[in-house]
Amino acid sequence: MERTRLPEGKMKWKKTGGGSLRLSNMRFIRSGQVFDAYPHEIPLAFRDVVICLSPVDEINAEKEKKIDYVAVKANAYSLVSRGIGYWNVVDKNGKVINEKALRKDKAEELLKSLEV
C-alpha cells in the first residue's frame, strides 16, 4: 500500500482529541488549536489526530503543479441512530450538530442543507 502524497508547502492544520503534541521544531500544539506547519514537521504517530484545513485547490494554485493525493471531503456529515425513530446528524469528528434528537425526515433535511 502506498502512502498519501502531500504537497511540499506549509498548510493549515487543526489538532483534535485530547492532550497536546510537540512538533519536530519543538512547538507545543494544544487540543483544538489551528496552526501552520509543513507535513514533515508532524510526527507520523499524530497524523490521525490532526486535520488538514487547507483547501486542495489553494495548495495546487500555490505550487502551480499537479499533485496526486486524496482530498478529504470538508462537509462529511452522517446520520446516527439515537434510539427508536430518533436520529442525530454528526460531523466527521463525531460531534453532534443538532440540539435535540430528530425524527428521520427532519434529520435528512438538516443533512441535505449542511452538504450544500
Number of helices: 2
Total E-strand runs: 8
Kindly give the count of domains: 2
For the record, give the distance between the C-alpha atoms at the N and C termini, rounded to a whole number: 33 Å
Strand count, sense and barrel status of the largest sheet are: 3 strands, antiparallel
Category from helices, strands and their pairing:
alpha+beta
Share in β-strands = 25-35%
Model regions low in confidence, pLDDT < 50 over at least 5 residues? 63-74
How many whole angstroms does the radius of gyration measure? 17 Å
What is the mean pLDDT?
A: 75
List the secondary-structure elements in sequence, H or E: EEEEEHEEEH
Strand order in space, largest sheet: 4-1-5
What is the 3D form?
elongated
* Helix proportion range: 10-25%
Short overview:
This protein has 116 residues and is of the alpha+beta class.
Structural commentary:
This protein has two domains: 11-63; 78-114, no CATH class. 16% of the residues lie in helices and 27% in strands. The protein has a three-stranded antiparallel beta sheet with strand order 4-1-5, with no helix packed on it. The chain has a three-stranded antiparallel beta sheet with strand order 6-7-8, covered by helices on one side. It is of the alpha+beta class. The two termini are 33 Å apart. The radius of gyration is 17 Å and the shape is elongated.
